[in-house]
Specification:
Blueprint (H helix, E strand, L loop, with lengths): L2 H11 L2 H6 L5 E3 L2 E4 L11 E4 L4 E4 L5 E2 L1 H9 L3 H12 L13 H20 L1 H12 L4 H7 L2 E2 L6 H8 L4 H6 L3 E3 L5 E3 L4 E7 L5 E8 L8 E3 L15 H11 L1 E5 L2 H9 L5 E3 L7 H7 L5 E4 L5 H16 L3 E5 L7 H18 L1 E2 L1 H9 L7 H16 L3 H15 L25 H15 L15 H16 L7 H7 L4 H8 L12 H32 L3 H23 L2
Parallel strand pairs: 12-13, 12-14, 14-15
Antiparallel strand pairs: 1-2, 2-3, 3-4, 4-5, 6-9, 7-8, 9-10, 10-11, 15-16
Helix pairs in contact: 3-4, 5-6, 11-14, 15-16, 18-19, 18-22, 22-23
Length: about 575
């Protein structure tokens, strides 16, 4: 059956009113229905559901369309995936010719594990103790169900036995971090006796878990899934699956440091909140968020470590050309603590009181003893450096404020060192990582089938990540097997100069055929991109080390640089 014919058949058999009402509240209006648009923020309903035409469309932003289009957009999935799911709902059997996702069985195992943990939270004695703990910390049943929070049994091999009885291989369970093996060879459930928080990606697949112990004797309060075939902590974000739609609708995201902070924000009816897991915010996280938002609101802990992490996060957000704002908590509070002590109304009010970068930095550095010469010198150096490349009106405002309030004059004309550029290829104007990334993009432009054979690459160049995201969007919204460059350039004129300069001239030299040779070439390209990414991160950290005024931060940066040097040596020796 032709794809267009299949779409027509599915669209004719799926009732648009019933479908839309599963996701949003709708109201009768004349012959049809109306609602607040789920695809953008609005106060007056502009989303119209036509019973006669069987479509749902926003007259303001253009979101929605046929049942398949609406379903794909509201769930944040591809048209192909939406077609498959709605065909099943309509009782239409599909003749699949596309390649099955090689990670599908891993996703199924993760989903089985999460269902088991969720059931155990409400239906076991140890689970009920964990449930009581969650309730005491302000996490309601509604939030628990929305985030699919569960509890892993205290017994050693319950999950392993359950999933192997369902014919899943124990080695696969080990590969994705659900099961471990001790020195004696005995198996154990990795998240045993912990509250579990599933990490759900943008396609709705569970790719890992964060888990918290409620036993005060356990030293490691939190453990997270290790990087594996479906999970990468440098890219993955907690609650992305639930937050994604609201992120696209509002154009912003609140980013936290912990899963309980996210749970508190969701409890406050603010769903567009995510958190990093077991790592600080990375460039890859920020570039991933850039696909959905244009503003990142940093809501970290109110202690010194949280402030330091916020300042580091700002540098990454700024480099990605995203807006950045800060939510400030009192010393000793994290977002969850604040919510628990002050309630929803106060918490919502707090999240609306945002500071820009200059307000935030001034608030941080002005909390010193101005009678102490060393503190005063650090304050002058820090504020002078921050304001040196600020717009003139901002610079003048803070110079006047600091002079009037603290009797301190700043030197805002100091030379500000910029982060280093990436390593260049000798004799050319581009980096090794950029050249490799361009080659990978050409493969993706040549045929959609290449996307099925490669997991999301960590591009070292922001423009390449943007183009990659747009290529995915192009394939998701068309049935084309390769990208029509004329159409693509019309859809994304902002890439025209880059495509002309680096991409289009090379496309004729790359074959669209997928075989062992091309897959081997792509593997080498991905490794080159990875090396370039590490090189760039190393140089960025070296620059931060040079610019830092904090001795403790310098030590941490030096350690991170050492780790990257070791990683580079290992990766180069394996090539």
């Amino acid at each position: 059956m032709e794809k267009e014919t299949l779409w027509q058949q599915i669209n004719s058999q799926i009732n648009i009113v019933e479908l839309v009402s599963e996701f949003i509240d709708i109201q009768k209006s004349g012959k049809g229905y109306k609602a607040l648009c789920p695809f953008h923020d609005e106060k007056t309903p502009s989303f119209s559901i036509s019973v006669e035409k069987n479509i749902a469309k926003c007259f303001s932003c253009g979101g929605g369309g046929t049942p398949i289009s609406f379903y794909a957009q509201i769930k944040g999935i591809s048209l192909d995936q939406a077609t498959t799911e709605l065909a099943q709902r309509a009782g239409i059997t599909l003749q699949t010719t596309h390649k099955v996702d090689p990670n599908l069985h891993y996703y199924q195992m993760m989903n089985e594990a999460s269902h088991f943990y969720e059931f155990n939270l409400y239906n076991s004695n140890s689970g009920k103790e964990a449930l009581q703990y969650l309730h005491q910390r302000g996490i309601t049943d509604e939030v628990i169900k929305a985030l699919r929070i569960g509890f892993a049994p205290t017994s050693r091999e319950t999950l392993k036995n359950l999933l192997t009885q369902k014919e899943y291989l124990v080695n696969d369970l080990i590969d994705i971090g659900l099961v471990g093996q001790d020195e004696s060879g005995r198996y154990y459930d990795f998240f045993s006796a912990r509250i579990t928080f599933p990490i759900i990606n943008e396609n709705g697949h569970i790719i890992g878990f964060s888990a918290r112990s409620i036993d005060p004797k356990v030293k490691a309060k939190y453990i997270n899934s290790a990087d594996n075939k479906i999970y990468n902590k440098s890219v993955s974000l907690y609650n992305l699956g639930l937050a994604r739609q609201k992120m696209k609708q509002t154009g912003e995201v609140l980013i936290h440091e912990g899963v309980f902070d996210v749970a508190a924000t969701v409890a406050a009816k603010i769903p567009n909140a995510v958190a990093t897991l077991g790592t600080a915010l990375t460039k890859e996280h920020v570039n991933y968020l850039k696909r959905f938002v244009n503003k990142v609101v940093v809501a970290y802990d109110g202690d010194q470590a949280g402030v330091s992490s916020s300042l580091k996060a700002y540098q990454l957000i700024k480099q990605a050309n995203l807006q950045c704002e800060f939510i400030v908590l009192d010393q000793g509070f994290d977002p969850h603590d604040y919510y628990l002590k002050n309630g929803r109304e106060a918490y919502v009010s707090l999240t609306n009181k945002r500071l820009d970068y200059y307000e935030f930095v001034y608030g941080v550095y002005s909390k010193i003893d101005f009678s102490n010469a060393n503190d005063l010198m650090k304050f002058k150096q820090a504020m002078s450096k921050v304001l040196a490349d600020a717009p003139l009106n901002i610079k003048e405002r803070y110079q006047e404020l600091i002079l009037e309030k603290h009797k301190v004059s700043l030197n805002t004309n100091i030379k500000v060192n910029k982060p280093p550029a990436v390593v260049k290829v000798k004799g050319s104007g581009i980096s090794k990582a950029q050249r490799a990334g361009d080659q990978l993009l050409i493969h993706f432009l040549k045929t959609r089938r290449f996307l099925e054979n490669i997991s999301t690459p960590l591009f070292a160049v922001d423009m390449q990540l943007n183009i990659y995201s747009s290529i995915i969007n192009y394939y998701d919204t068309t049935s084309d097997m390769l990208v029509n460059m004329t159409k693509f350039s019309e859809l994304y004129p902002e890439y025209q100069d880059y495509l002309q300069k680096y991409i289009i001239k090379q496309t004729e030299f790359i074959s669209p055929e997928i075989n062992m040779t091309t897959l081997s070439q792509i593997e080498k390209i991905v490794k080159e991109i990875d090396l370039g990414r590490i090189e760039k991160e190393k140089e960025r950290l070296s620059w931060l080390l040079k610019e830092s005024l904090d001795d403790e931060e310098k030590i941490k940066l030096s350690e991170e640089i050492k780790k990257l040097n070791i990683e580079l040596r290992l990766k180069r020796s394996s090539q």
